[in-house]
Amino acid sequence: MGVLGEIGRRARVAATWFTQPLLPDDLLGTLNPLWSSREPHARVVGLRRETADTTTLLLRTGPGRPRHRPGQFVGVGTRLDGVWHWRTYSVTSCPGDPLLAVTVTALPGGTVSGALAHGTPVGTLLRIGPPAGEFVLPEPVPEKLLFLTAGSGITPVMGMLRDLAATRPEALSGAVLVHCDRTPSDLVFGPELRDLAATTGLTLVERHTAVRGRLTPDNLTDDVPDWAARQAWACGPAAMIDAFTEHWARAGDPTALHVELFTPPVPVATDATGGRVSFTTSGIETDAAPGTPLMVAGEAAGALLPNGCRMGICHTCVGRLRSGAVRDLRTGDLHDTPGEPVRTCVSGAAGDVEIEL
Amino acid sequence: MATQTFGPSMTPSAAAHLTEEQVEALGAELDAIRAEVVGSLGEADARYIHRVIAVQRGLEVGGRGALIFSLFPPAWVAGTAALSVAKILDNMEIGHNVLHGQWDWMRDPKIHSTTWEWDHASPAASWKKSHNYEHHTFTNIRGKDRDLGYSIMRITPEQEWKPADLFQPLVNLGLSMIFEWGIAIYDVEFEKVKNGTKPWPQAKGELMGLWRKARRQLAKDYVLFPLLSGPGFLSTVAANATANVVRNMWSHAVIFCGHFPDGVETFEEERLDGETKGQWYVRQMLGSANLSGGKLFHLMTGNLSHQIEHHLFPDVPSNRYAEIAPKVQEICKRYGLPYTTGSLPRQYGKVLRKITRLAFPGGGPKQPAPAPARLPVPAGRKPSAAVRLAS
């Protein structure tokens, strides 16, 4: 950081004295949400219908968007009925592209993925998180690449393929992609992948599972005889990833397989089940009986928790949910969104749960 | 200021005729109203609070911008007016309600009770404790709800008279002008330090926290923005002071009308023991009073003009109180309970009359009703409040 950076920093500190208790960033965000660097927003400026249930959202972000590595995902926040919901989606644009592209597949019964894939018109304002994820290619790029994808598992791999095609197409020569979906029309990015195969020497194996069945370790050799000699990147449903992880551990080199799991929300029981409660700030763990408020369980274990009315009205006791699910003991509603504020005085554990208090 | 002492109740409760079953049925009806409103919260509500915040920020930036030219009288008037309204909106419809958690359901980290800070001397954290917890949980319990007279005034005849109370009409006027500072200092609970129930180091820590926040507020209003005005320095100081006093007197009037006018009850501490949800609702209704007015008036009071509805449902978004009010009023009528409401001048007049009357000894009803027997209360089991309520 040079002299200019130091001047900029001091100017921001000085501006804070004029805007407090707000930050200058809050006022910028009120004028144009895209100008906020503390709560980065993005505006949908284009849509690409990839298949019947998959849509690519083209997003204009603010000036300070952090550069992603191909294969990484970003958090996408959308306001549905006034409530912010967050999900993560793979970035399918290249790091230098002016617009950020995320590709969303509507899951059966998924309200958020469905709304993003089908109910997000151009002009919609979304929130956007920093890029994250370890499912990326190393430097230098290995010579013999293998990609195994199923359904929307193609999305992080598409980010890698587009980047390679744009910056060093020679790396794709000799690479193999096995991409599975039910029928040719379900196959996400089908036409673009066929073009890519024709121009770069990438071997594309389209596996239409309605005809040929699922890709398994047993039939992998049919499509890719030299799989064991390749560095592999696999992304798809948990069952497929589990099967390949086991296969590489048994018959190949486990370090040559890199995987990305889709983790659908784990279903939880519909009654207040109780469970192990961890308060992450104080480090205290305890068991909460069914129907026992988290606050009562924590206090019994000696945790110093913020508390007030102990009847769900004053919000003194709110802590953020890090993982797991809680049930509102008054209404029976289940809350399982990570980061959601939870009132510990009226919430019981629905399975094991971590609260940031 | 000394710890307050209270004599026995001087009036029978307006809810004395209700049976235990009726109180619980009333509670169930109010629960149903709450569930209906909470279930219907959605995009329109989210747009409402975003719009109010945008208007408030626009008024504040516009007002402070105009005051850069505060030597020019029209700019002084327009800027001061805009800044006064901005401060009132910030404190009342936005700050007070966001800090209650009314907008937590949106899961918006920028509009959330755990992250919000306001243009007020009192830091949000200490406000949440003294207001959300103590005042809203112990509403109008004599000796527990410190908002009854803010520990410096005699606001119910049950409070014992002291000679210093003679000055309370003047104290009230002074308090109204510096109300934000009164609240901030009051949150430190000096009367508890004095009687030994609060350790001094804790109070000192809170005072330091208050000072860290307050010095920035003072610097902004009385040094930094005046400096931007150059030769208009003093003129801008005067404008900002005026906006602060306008905000203080307005919020003081609205808040005092919420709990102190005639017809509002106060309660004994024993009532808390074993108090049911239904009884809690009854106490909130009898302990609060509304103000009547138009839409703009409700907005400018932060919807504390719907004080009764706010006390029944403190974490329901304030823009919904207006639609709840007729239902609550109908319930009160059906159960034979008072629903105190009136215009701001009328209600504030009653408050001032009461403050003046209670500056002198006495002030209870002419024919004191036979006070309920005050048993010496041991630490263990106490007679249930329900019995007293039903008797």
Automatic annotation (TrEMBL), chain A:
<keyword id="KW-0001">2Fe-2S</keyword>
<dbReference type="InterPro" id="IPR017927">
    <property type="entry name" value="FAD-bd_FR_type"/>
</dbReference>
<dbReference type="InterPro" id="IPR036010">
    <property type="entry name" value="2Fe-2S_ferredoxin-like_sf"/>
</dbReference>
<keyword id="KW-0411">Iron-sulfur</keyword>
<dbReference type="InterPro" id="IPR001433">
    <property type="entry name" value="OxRdtase_FAD/NAD-bd"/>
</dbReference>
<feature type="domain" description="2Fe-2S ferredoxin-type">
    <location>
        <begin position="275"/>
        <end position="357"/>
    </location>
</feature>
<dbReference type="Pfam" id="PF00111">
    <property type="entry name" value="Fer2"/>
</dbReference>
<dbReference type="InterPro" id="IPR012675">
    <property type="entry name" value="Beta-grasp_dom_sf"/>
</dbReference>
<dbReference type="Pfam" id="PF00175">
    <property type="entry name" value="NAD_binding_1"/>
</dbReference>
<keyword id="KW-0479">Metal-binding</keyword>
<keyword id="KW-0274">FAD</keyword>
<protein>
    <submittedName>
        <fullName>Ferredoxin reductase</fullName>
    </submittedName>
</protein>
<keyword id="KW-0408">Iron</keyword>
<dbReference type="InterPro" id="IPR050415">
    <property type="entry name" value="MRET"/>
</dbReference>
<keyword id="KW-0285">Flavoprotein</keyword>
<keyword id="KW-0560">Oxidoreductase</keyword>
<dbReference type="InterPro" id="IPR039261">
    <property type="entry name" value="FNR_nucleotide-bd"/>
</dbReference>
<feature type="domain" description="FAD-binding FR-type">
    <location>
        <begin position="37"/>
        <end position="138"/>
    </location>
</feature>
<dbReference type="InterPro" id="IPR017938">
    <property type="entry name" value="Riboflavin_synthase-like_b-brl"/>
</dbReference>
<dbReference type="InterPro" id="IPR001041">
    <property type="entry name" value="2Fe-2S_ferredoxin-type"/>
</dbReference>
